[in-house]
Write a structure and sequence with these properties.
Shape: globular
CATH class: Alpha Beta
Distance between the termini: 54 Å
Strand order of the largest sheet: 3-4-5-2-6-7-1-8
Order of helices and strands: HHEHEHEEEEHEHEHHHH
Helix content: 25-40%
Number of domains: 1
Radius of gyration: 19 Å
Length: 261
Amino acid sequence: MSSQEQPPNLNPREIQKKFIKKIFNIELYDYQIDFICDCMNLERIIGVFCRQSGKSMCIAIVAILEALRNSNENILLIAPTDLQAGTLFDKVSMYLRNSLLIGEIDTITKRQVILKNGAKILAHTTGEKGDTIRGLTGKVIIMEESAYIKDSIVYEVVTPMGAAKNAKFIKISTPFGMNHFYDSAFKNNWKLHQIPYSIPVKEGLIKQSYIEEQKETTTDIQFRTEYNAEFIADEDAYFKTELIQNCIFDYPLIEVNYAIA
């Protein structure tokens, strides 16, 4: 595929579905295609996805498509923890390497890919206060597990990253409290995609038996947030959102040498 070629403007939906099938050899469900189309065509998109509904796959494909059509620009993947940032970037790397776009790769490292058109996809963790990502700029800024990124980091660090580029912002997560993620979900200038478990069950992605098992093994609040994609008010929760967020921090993994004596 030529580096001058761009993904089509994504209406009607079937055009994009066939395009993704051709390029990535992936058959997506309608709700995933709808989300990807809006991510490509709109400037403020929020995806409230239940667990196991393919949200990271969707956002990895979006990042690649945006890099393909935004020459010499940064596509930023921001996540609360190093593990989440790395897992998402691994998906980006895998889909690129296994697609018709493999010839478009210039260089690829553990957390950065540069395409031949000069576009970069970079994955970063916010850290505890956002200090590690200050100063970055991006044309497209994607927040993975967005509900778990602290409000202070979103407003003071992440949002300014897009000021000079009039950037596109995409937030995707399961719900968690009444924070910036909740606020964006119900603002008129953000396009909301809310995907409870009933949608991937209907499509055949998740088995109903798995959902019934989760109902038996999780609390009501856990099930409603993780699988029904509901926002739960703080007054209904045992621990307040702010308290939990203040206890979340990233830390380096310790390598253990299991040398045999």
